[in-house]
């Protein structure tokens, strides 16, 4: 079958067979259809040694001679079967396997076949050196499965068949149920509880006197009532009669509208397709709360439930339901300004974000009443902002927070402001927040912000005073969609996903509700909110029930539940006895309770009862319409209070939760800096700004920095070595940060390790690792020419092996034993740069001196792609895991981006070399990605430059002055806040990455002996520690390796000097040599 629907049907049948536990039939259909390769089943067959079944199952997907991967899969399986026969001393069976199964591979590799045949002559095949590690059968099968999985994932005939479609449980049953509902809706005399006896004929409600058509023979499908786990009874969703007023349901947005215009009962949002608002919510001054509960279709009760809900559901044990609500005031926070928006962290549920009316954002640990972070509104990059925003801020600089919200996983949060802007922060735990993105999103106020994930990439949704809704990529800030159609400012957005069907509800100030798909087809729903109120929509935590809360211009407020299937109000909640003095806000919790801030209190309803359940006054002191927010478990409730305070209400569970975190906080605070205070105390985090912002730079401005000229003013460690080496050509920390690996120009590797369990520090020296065998990791120099040699290496993510070259073959070394595992790619061409693929350690990119880039797959020993575009040797390679991009730099001063999945060229540009400098072909250029995986650093002997990847635009650069010595190397710190750079005159400069301004300069006199000239010895390569942002190492021309740290353990490079006896230590604070040298950042 080749049609898409036929394949879908097979997948549905596979799901049905699996649910019915018809395993043999299930796997037979998998094999015969060839649509889904069940790795779990295959794994079981291999571990059980059912070799015939293994090959039979495989044959439904691949053949031996399909490709190299398929051949290797079959070979590994048959080799294992052969070895097991030898291990059992069953030579007859082994010979049979050799002749029937393995001989087919002789035509591809005759030497290998001969070697396998020779195993028959050995008493124990483990005498063969390559098989000496073979243990028992069970272990060997498990090891082979690891290799097989990699081969299967790499095989183009299999890798797309490993993932079963994401289907809702019992999808086939659901479709049949929908069909039966549809058939029932067409019955001329529909019964309330139809009797469905068979699927073999169309359903039709008949008179009691009519005989029901019977099938010949017995059938297990014939039954008056399906079993509990079988097809849902057609009455489960209340089939209803056609109505002339019903329009095309929302379920038809993504398909061709049905020819018969009837609603489908079990669609996710079907009824919101109603074109006539009068069918839904009544209008006019005579409307009452009771009017909201009127049924809109014959046969459908007011208690019509969403699919999956149970009208008779009990919410717990007997007792007072209000006991489950947070009512006890346990904490009071002094915010300092009026809270306008709050949100609890989705994981650490005592962390509370607060936004205020003066633009302040705060992060509170409510258990300890500690304000961890406080930031006032500030435009991060005023130069990139629109002229309209600049003019608005000049006219009226006051800004308030309209909405603050955590991302779904709590790793970031977004802030919407009353003037144009949204700002996204990354959260690293504790008090560590860092700037991520700033977007000039709307003209006027940004009224709401929300997160959604309609594709694999997280998105941010905003709405604003300019009557639009916009969707942004949460990582890059790229605008993906703009939805226009409201006639008034958009008040709120509510994105949702139902059965992988993504949509957005939006509400506007004029009381309109619209719904949008992620396309450019306009609104799919145009509907009136109750009383044309300014409304907010919200789903229950389980995503099954939809509510809205709003207030009209006349102060009439409402909270209602919607029937998504029919687009009408299902239940209107009572309890708004007075006109509200502001727009009422609400929240839901525990899939049971609704709460709204109104009339100087918090009103609470049980979702199943329209009558008001209780009123919580929070011991008084609340504003007319307090802001409220539950934490995820519903054990805490944050409420805005008078005098710029926030009250934290708690249940018994909430009190225990806060005590737990408070105890942890007290333990941690014993080692915390003294600057941290409670009850409103703040921590200044302005020095952590990972977002790369191009600030307006004045090239003639004199900027001061700290200059270190004495060893006493820093912490320095020179690593000792008994091995004589030349210049250190390459240097890096291991990914664990506990060792340093160096490659000298004479092709020898040196590895220093700090003691196991100890952290890398300058306080004590690491030991040079030397195996007992005396082996040194020395690169293969076969075919190497000194004039072509460019030492390069790359370390695997798990630190277990290193790829390295010094002008000859590329060598693969075991980092534990120092043994050479293999050597490959004999020159020419010569490897000049090596980089591991971030998603697969078995793929490396190798830059060559002939200007090409080879994509090499280690597992199959094959170059699968060759990338061409440079005109001179490759000098740098870097992968972005986020953007699936490879960036390459060459001695031709060219920068090229490549797609790292399809290996296609994307964009290119040339580095601008200052006039008078030597030709680009004589100098190297390196590249390294920023921590955000969007920007990258380019290092050239004349300059440092930071680029944005997608547009390949230079956002910031620092250029050498005419009389300055060239840059030898540079690298980001591990948090990408600093750039460590070395120069040929021995000077080390530390730059702020956000503006490329010098923060600290270390002169050669601080780290070189007095009898050594910096002209003869200087650093040529820099490495940054992977966890400690202020520790870095330098490799010198004399073969030495130095580790640097600031003088004080908790200090940073460029901080003010420490104080001794009331007087500062004498560290010179110096401006650059002169403004004319142009040693300044350039925007």
UniProtKB/TrEMBL annotation:
Signal peptide: none annotated. Residues 306-326 are annotated as: Disordered. PANTHER family: CTLH DOMAIN-CONTAINING PROTEIN, TOPLESS-RELATED PROTEIN 1-RELATED. Keywords: Repeat, WD repeat. GO terms for biological process: regulation of DNA-templated transcription. It comes from Rhamnella rubrinervis. This is CTLH domain-containing protein. It comes from the Eukaryota. InterPro entries: CTLH_C (IPR006595), LisH (IPR006594), Quinoprotein_ADH-like_sf (IPR011047), Topless_fam (IPR027728), Topless_Znf (IPR048419), TPL_SMU1_LisH-like (IPR054532), TPR1-like_2nd (IPR054080), WD40/YVTN_repeat-like_dom_sf (IPR015943). Residues 310-321 have a biased composition (Polar residues). PROSITE patterns: CTLH, LISH, WD_REPEATS_2, WD_REPEATS_REGION. SMART domains: CTLH (SM00668), LisH (SM00667), WD40 (SM00320). Residues 36-93 form the CTLH domain. The keyword Repeat applies. WD repeats lie at residues 439-482, 584-615, 867-899.
């Amino acid at each position: 079958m080749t049609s898409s629907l036929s394949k879908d049907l097979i997948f549905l049948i596979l799901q049905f067979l699996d649910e019915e536990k018809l395993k043999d039939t299930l796997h037979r259909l998998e094999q015969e259809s060839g649509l889904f390769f069940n790795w779990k089943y295959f794994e079981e067959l291999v571990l059980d040694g059912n070799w015939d079944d293994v090959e039979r199952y495989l044959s439904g997907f691949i053949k031996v001679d399909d490709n190299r991967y398929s051949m290797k899969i079959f070979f590994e399986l048959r080799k294992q079967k052969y070895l097991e026969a030898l291990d059992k001393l069953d030579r007859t069976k082994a010979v049979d396997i050799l002749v029937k199964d393995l001989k087919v591979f002789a035509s591809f590799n005759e030497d290998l076949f001969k070697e396998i045949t020779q195993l028959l002559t050995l008493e124990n095949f483990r005498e063969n050196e390559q098989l000496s590690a073979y243990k028992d059968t069970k272990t060997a099968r498990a090891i082979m499965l690891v290799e097989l999985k990699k081969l299967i994932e790499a095989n183009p005939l299999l890798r797309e068949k490993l993932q079963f479609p994401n289907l809702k449980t019992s999808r086939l049953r659901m479709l049949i149920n929908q069909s039966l509902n549809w058939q029932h809706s067409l019955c001329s005399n529909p019964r309330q509880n139809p009797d469905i006896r068979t699927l073999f004929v169309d359903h039709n409600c008949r008179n009691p006197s009519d005989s029901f058509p019977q099938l010949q023979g017995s059938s297990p499908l014939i039954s008056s009532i399906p079993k509990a786990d079988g097809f849902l009874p057609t009455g489960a969703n209340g089939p209803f009669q056609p109505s002339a007023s019903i329009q095309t349901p929302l379920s038809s947005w993504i398909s061709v509208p049905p020819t018969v215009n009837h609603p489908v009962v079990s669609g996710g949002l079907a009824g919101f397709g109603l074109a006539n608002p009068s069918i839904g919510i009544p209008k006019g001054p005579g409307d009452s709360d009771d009017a909201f509960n009127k049924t809109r279709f014959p046969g459908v009760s007011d208690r019509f439930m969403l699919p999956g809900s149970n009208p008779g559901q009990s919410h717990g044990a007997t007792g007072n339901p209000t006991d489950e609500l947070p009512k006890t005031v346990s904490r009071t926070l002094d915010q300092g300004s009026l809270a306008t928006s709050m949100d609890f962290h989705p994981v650490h549920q005592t962390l509370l974000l607060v936004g205020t009316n003066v633009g302040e954002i705060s992060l509170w640990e409510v258990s300890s009443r500690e304000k961890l972070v406080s930031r006032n509104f500030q435009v991060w990059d005023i130069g990139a902002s629109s002229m309209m925003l600049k003019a608005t801020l000049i006219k009226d600089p006051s800004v308030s927070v309209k909405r603050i919200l955590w991302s779904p996983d709590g790793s970031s949060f977004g802030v919407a402001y009353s003037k144009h802007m949204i700002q996204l922060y990354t959260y690293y735990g504790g008090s560590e927040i860092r700037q991520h993105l700033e977007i000039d999103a709307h003209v006027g106020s940004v009224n709401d912000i929300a997160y959604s994930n309609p594709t694999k990439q997280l998105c941010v949704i905003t709405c604003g005073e300019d009557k639009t809704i916009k969707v942004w990529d949460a990582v890059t800030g790229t605008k993906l969609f703009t939805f226009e159609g409201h006639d008034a400012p958009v008040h709120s957005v509510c994105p949702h996903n139902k059965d992988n069907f993504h949509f957005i509800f939006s509400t506007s100030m004029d009381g309109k509700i619209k719904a949008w798909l992620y396309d450019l087809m306009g609104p799919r729903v145009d509907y009136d909110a109750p009383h044309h109120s300014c409304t907010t929509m919200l789903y229950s935590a389980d995503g099954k029930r939809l509510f809205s809360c709003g207030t009209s211009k006349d102060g009439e407020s409402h909270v209602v539940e919607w029937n998504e299937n029919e687009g009408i109000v299902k239940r209107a909640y009572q309890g708004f006895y007075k006109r509200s003095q502001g727009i009422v806000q609400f929240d839901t919790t525990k899939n049971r309770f609704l709460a709204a801030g109104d009339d100087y209190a918090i009103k609470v309803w049980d979702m199943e009862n329209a009558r008001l359940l209780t009123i919580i006054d929070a011991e008084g002191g609340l504003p007319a319409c307090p802001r409220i927010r539950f934490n995820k478990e519903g054990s805490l409730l944050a409420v805005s209070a008078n005098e710029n305070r926030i009250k934290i209400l708690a249940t018994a569970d909430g009190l225990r939760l806060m005590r737990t975190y408070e105890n942890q906080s007290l333990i941690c605070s014993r080692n915390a800096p003294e600057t941290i205070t409670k009850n409103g105390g703040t921590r200044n985090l302005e020095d952590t700004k990972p977002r790369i912002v191009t600030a307006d730079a004045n090239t003639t401005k004199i900027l001061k920095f700290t200059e270190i000229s004495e060893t006493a003013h820093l912490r320095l460690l020179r690593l000792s070595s008994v091995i004589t080496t030349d210049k250190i050509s390459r240097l890096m920390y291991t990914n664990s940060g506990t060792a340093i690996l160096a490659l000298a120009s004479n092709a020898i590797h040196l590895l220093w390790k700090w003691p196991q369990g100890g952290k890398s520090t300058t306080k004590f020296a690491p030991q040079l690792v030397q195996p007992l065998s005396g082996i040194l990791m020395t690169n293969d120099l076969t075919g190497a020419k000194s004039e072509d040699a460019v030492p390069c290496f790359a370390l695997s993510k798990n630190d277990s092996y290193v790829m390295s070259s010094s002008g000859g073959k590329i060598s693969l070394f075991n980092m534990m034993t120092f043994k050479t595992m293999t050597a490959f790619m004999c020159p020419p061409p010569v490897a000049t740069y090596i980089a591991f693929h971030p998603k697969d350690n078995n793929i490396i990119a190798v830059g060559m001196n002939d200007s090409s880039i080879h994509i090499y797959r280690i597992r199959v020993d094959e170059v699968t792609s060759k990338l061409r575009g440079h005109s001179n040797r490759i000098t740098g390679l870097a992968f972005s895991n986020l953007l699936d991009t490879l960036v390459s730099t060459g001695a031709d001063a060219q920068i090229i981006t490549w797609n790292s999945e399809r290996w296609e060229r994307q964009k290119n540009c040339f580095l601008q070399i200052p006039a008078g400098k030597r030709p680009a072909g004589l100098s190297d250029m390196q590249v390294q990605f920023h921590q955000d995986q969007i920007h990258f650093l380019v290092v050239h002997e004349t300059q440092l430059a930071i680029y944005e990847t997608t547009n390949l635009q230079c956002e910031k650069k620092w250029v050498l002055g005419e009389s300055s010595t060239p840059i030898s190397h540079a690298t980001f710190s591990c948090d990408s806040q600093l750039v460590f750079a070395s120069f040929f005159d021995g000077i080390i400069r530390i730059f702020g990455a956000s503006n490329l301004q010098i923060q600290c300069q270390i002169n050669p006199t601080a780290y070189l002996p007095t009898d050594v000239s910096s002209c003869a010895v200087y650093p040529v390569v820099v490495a940054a520690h992977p966890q400690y942002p202020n520790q870095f190492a330098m490799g010198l021309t004399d073969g030495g390796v130095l580790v640097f740290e600031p003088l004080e353990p908790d200090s940073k490079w460029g901080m003010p000097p420490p104080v001794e006896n009331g007087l500062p230590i004498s560290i010179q604070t110096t401006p650059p040599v002169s403004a004319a040298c142009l040693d300044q950042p350039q925007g």
